[in-house]
Fold this sequence. Notes:
This protein is largely without helices or strands. The protein has one domain (about 20-115). It contains 1 helix and no strands. The chain has one helix at about 120-125. The chain is elongated.
Amino acid sequence: MVLIAAFCGESVAERGNNHGFEHSNNGFQGNNHGFEHNNGFQGNNHGFEGSNNGFQGNNHGFEGSNNGFQGNNHGFEGSNNGFQGNNHGFEGSNNGFQGNNHGFEHNNGFQSNNHGFPRSLRAIRGAGI
């Protein structure tokens, strides 16, 4: 096992398979392949982050503190967006897999996204269909 200087000051008996940086109080601690900041893959944004955007804050990693897979957002998070707050991962604090939200949250999952024909039916009716 190779000990990294970042682990100084923490007393953990077995850190396990640490390929990146780790912190304490995490589910799956010691198997963090991401970045140290209380998380594995915290703030690893593979998408676009800002406001009024599609794919805002597309976090494919792990976000939060003291968690295993906290805030693993595979969707799109922010404001005024399609797929806003689509959290496919785990969100919370001091938990492994807390708040496994597979849907859409933040009042904007497909908001006003009409998959049917709310107004075009008039044209179909007028055509005699």
